[in-house]
Amino acid sequence: MAGLSEKPQALGIDQESAEANKNSSSNKKSVHNRLLEKDKEEGGQGGDMSPSAGSSIKRSGSRPQLDVSKAEIQGNVEEKYPTILLPNQSDDLSHLALDIGGSLIKLVYFSRHEDQSTDDKRKRSVKERLGLSNGNRRSFPILGGRLHFVKFETRKINECLDFINSKQLHRGGAESPYADGATDGNAIIKATGGGAYKYTDLFKERLGVSLDKEDEMDCLVAGANFLLKAIRHEAFTHMEGQKEFVQIDPNDLFPYLLVNIGSGVSMIKVDGDGKFERVSGTNVGGGTYWGLGRLLTKCKSFDELLELSQKGDNRTIDMLVGDIYGGLDYSKIGLSASTIASSFGKTISEKKELEDYRPEDISLSLLRMISYNIGQISYLNALRFGLKRIFFGGFFIRGHAYTMDTISFAVQFWSKGEAQAMFLRHEGFLGALGAFMSYEKHGLDDLMVHQLVERFPMGAPYTGGKIHGPPLGDLNEKASDRNSKYLISWMEKFLRKGTEITAPVPMTPAAGTTGLGGFDVPLSRGSSLRSDASALNVGVLHLVPTLDVFPLLEDPKTYEPNTIDLADPSELEYWFTILSEHLPDLVDKAVASEGRTDDAKRRGDAFARAFSAHLARLMEEPAAYGKLGLANLLEMREECLREFQFVDAYRSIKQRENEASLAVLPDLLMEIDSMDEETRLLTLIEGVLAANIFDWGSRACVDLYHKGTIIEIYRMSRNKMQRPWRVDDFDLFKERMLGTGDKKKPPHKRALLFVDNSGADIVLGMLPLARELLRRGTEVVLVANSLPALNDVTAMELPDIVAEAAKHCDTLRRAAEAGGLLVDAMINSSRSSKGKSSSVPLMVVENGCGSPCIDLRQVSSELAAAAKDADLIILEGMGRALHTNLNARFKCDALKVRSDCLLLLFCA
Ligand SMILES: Nc1ncnc2c1ncn2[C@@H]1O[C@H](COP(=O)(O)OP(=O)(O)OP(=O)(O)O)[C@@H](O)[C@H]1O
Ligand SMILES: CC(C)(CO)[C@@H](O)C(=O)NCCC(=O)O
Ligand SMILES: [Mn+2]
């Protein structure tokens, strides 16, 4: 293979093609978007849950028992695992868990996911052909759902009760059939934290539910272990303003020290799942900062106090070594003049009263004192037990840079770099998550990294993400209506609130510095804090048990689906510009795709606003939503469109181009068939390169459309594909395909073709190549998106396209029949009958994504099954071949193709 370095620029792309390259990717969406396959088993309960087994209650007496009275099979009785409807089973009760602390109430709740895809014929035939059973899905009773994280102030517990009530979370969510029924009186919610005891009666009175108490330390540890094992890049270090995500090896996690900084602080030595000891604690914690800070500064909220600290200078409050030593260092014991000798030590001055100190300075001094103290005590406890890693959780941290830097500094300084402080993205939700996990039947702890996808709701953070109160509760007609189903959707709220929604404004950077420098003071001042709702920095966790790791990855552990490093500021800025500039065009297409109705225009406008706001937020703080890759960014755009109910912005464009390309396909096939083997192979590859040019993301392409018909453009670009290409492994590929001299190699057994765009790309590029492979006796699996992304062809659309193409070509027809793709056609066709077909099959599988990129750690189970017998992978297009998988290594032959940088990379 050619010696490629990591970045596409290193390919030596010239300006022109680099332009096209950049433009084109701007149009595509990114990775990660995992599709939730409709799963009929979800509603039904597996046999292992049978009530007659009598063993269903293990850990907790509150685990709901199944009520199977009036049970009936729903749908097709002949299905292997038909859905069983349990009309009297209120199994939804367990979809909420609480951690009621001294300061904050944390909620984790689950919502079912509405089906996005139907169990269509293609899926059924793929399942049969690939021998896909329903596998382990039944052991995940909550599959196809989402975990949400919300918090409230404990002193405003009524807002929390209203929220639960408005969403009917205590009865399984607003969509639950029990939602408007009478309270059954048996509702039980898992709860931890002191408030689970303190507020038992209140919950019973207000909501009619019983709180099932789970131990706070148990829950903290369960939550932390789950997050560290199951969420990619959950942990990060934070030193001198630099955030760095850390990938913890789940097999090398223990032992560690968990320090939960809530109102008070608990320090727990964790040795394994459920194996831990609370080894220390301190009553100088988050409550101390907030409480003392409130008294001393008159701040009205925690965030206000924190924000104030950013403008503070603690030298007016703290007594420094230099203050004591007349400006000198005390170097003999390693103390510089700027080291703080005594927190608040300067306030002993008799000449000054509280009013004489700036609240900003007080807040900073206090924050530093408490953070540093906690860091120091944590280090001492780590030292006591020889622990090297300390994870800090609890909402005192609040993602605040200065707090984290101070803690890290204390740990680093006192341990002389031996111990490491790490922070958790879900900082304050450990206990609530642990409580949620204590519902055994959820099977949450069996989920694996690749089955979880975190997404950031696009509109919601700007409407419902506030930490207190139900999302825009005031917009609901009447408080009493909150119980009813007439809740306004978040989008409606977004539209109504629209004028108030603007991109988040960066906080003013801290003025000056603490002036202390050196080893003893953190430099950063936490410019990332924001008191507006966008500070919501944990997303919604999508649980998708049907996702798998792509089995042909050579080493999933080292696989990195980001060719481009957005940590590079110029790269980041570049992509943000591309995305912003392309936005108006995208909105226009989206609105057009819905007939330009007023509603569509309103939504288009809202989409643009929401997406721009997120872009602005990320530009300012790239790690705001966790580790950011280009794939995430592109996917975010697609997700955002979907959230604003634009199902498929390119629908009509795709249709038009498919038709135009199909019309010229017979001519093209005839031309190809007149060639000898070698010329044909080259022409087909040139064809893929030429047809992949047809990309709505590329401005160059849009210009082309004005100049000619599809076939003309296709021929023209094919002629321009003069070898050698920039990366040209054609000879290698040819040798593998055709052999050299008399040495023929056996054909590949099965090829996976990761297809890209609709129109010419699939019809004139990939299908003719697929046909060649089929002719050579290679089974072909077309791998397409599960959800639309720009003009990418989807797995739903492909069977029809193949059926049309098959009308002009016997090879395709027989293969498609053999692959079960021509179900409808077969009914009308007298020629075909099952089993008769001698052809190797042509199949279509979905990839599990709705973005132009693909993260091969999280693909559909369909694709994973199809991959098992595959020995050739063909990846096409900017998103899949370049941005995400240029450096991916596979266990089998792989061909990576991208037109506008003339890339043909073959690894055997
Ligand atoms: N909006 C907020 N309101 C109040 N405190 C906040 C807020 N955001 C962050 N905090 C900080 O987080 C702390 C509470 O953290 P957390 O929710 O983890 O603890 P808790 O569970 O309430 O307390 P404990 O576990 O000691 O009972 C507060 O004491 C305060 O320092
Ligand atoms: C009492 C708890 C456990 C309640 O969450 C917490 O506030 C805490 O750990 N406080 C510190 C108590 C101590 O160990 O001094
Ligand atoms: Mn707590």
TrEMBL record:
GO molecular function, one term: pantothenate kinase activity
EC number(s) on file: 2.7.1.33
Annotated Low complexity bias: 18-28
One CC-aspect GO term: nucleus
The entry's keywords: ATP-binding, Coenzyme A biosynthesis, Hydrolase, Kinase, Manganese, Metal-binding, Nickel, Nucleotide-binding, Transferase
Feature: compositional bias, Polar residues: 52-63
Gene3D superfamilies the record matches: 3.30.420.40, 3.30.420.510, AF1104-like (1.20.1700.10), Uncharacterised protein PF01937, DUF89, domain 3 (3.40.50.10880)
NCBIfam families per record: panK_eukar
PANTHER family, per the entry: 4'-PHOSPHOPANTETHEINE PHOSPHATASE, PANTOTHENATE KINASE
Cofactor(s) annotated in UniProt: Ni(2+); Mn(2+)
Functional description taken from the UniProt entry: Catalyzes the phosphorylation of pantothenate the first step in CoA biosynthesis. May play a role in the physiological regulation of the intracellular CoA concentration. Functionally redudant with PANK1. The phosphatase activity shows preference for normal or oxidatively damaged intermediates of 4'-phosphopantetheine, which provides strong indirect evidence that the phosphatase activity pre-empts damage in the CoA pathway. Hydrolyzing excess 4'-phosphopantetheine could constitute a directed overflow mechanism to prevent its oxidation to the S-sulfonate, sulfonate, or other forms.
Top-level taxon of origin: Eukaryota
Entry protein name: Pantothenate kinase 2
Keyword field contains Transferase: yes
Family to which this protein belongs: In the C-terminal section; belongs to the damage-control phosphatase family. Phosphopantetheine phosphatase II subfamily.
Location of the region described as Disordered in the Swiss-Prot/TrEMBL record: 1-68
Catalysed reactions listed for this entry: (R)-4'-phosphopantetheine sulfonate + H2O = (R)-pantetheine sulfonate + phosphate; (R)-pantothenate + ATP = (R)-4'-phosphopantothenate + ADP + H(+); (R)-4'-phosphopantetheine + H2O = (R)-pantetheine + phosphate; (R)-4'-phosphopantothenate + H2O = (R)-pantothenate + phosphate
